Amino acid sequence: MPTMAPPDIPSNLLGTIVHDALEELLTAHHPELRGRTWDATTIPVPVQRPTDDQIIRMTGACAERSAAEHGIRSRGTWRLLTLRALPFVQRSVDADWPTPESIVQVIATESRGVFYIPAGKDGEKVPVSFKADRIDRV
Question: E-assigned strands of 1-124?
Fold first, then answer.
């Protein structure tokens, strides 16, 4: 029986799928979080734990989209990618929302900012720019 070699899968594809699925799980019901401008007074958005069905569907949608973006068209590959990504997405969800009733206070996703750190005796402060996948109120 002839067999087919698996498609060439870019090494960063799995990480991209996990990242995108986690972002989509946050912003699906709260699109205002994506790229939100924020400061110390910004009121966070309470985000409930996604259901298992939402986790599976969102991971699958991100896997299908990412596979297509990388030119991977073989039938079923995105399903394989979904199965590979799901444990990582599930662990991240479990870490943030340990119970079905858990709420995460999210300020923004995919956001840029600057904070200042002391850098000398004269009280001089140095700016440090950053890009965060997610900013929470703790």
Answer: 45-48, 103-118
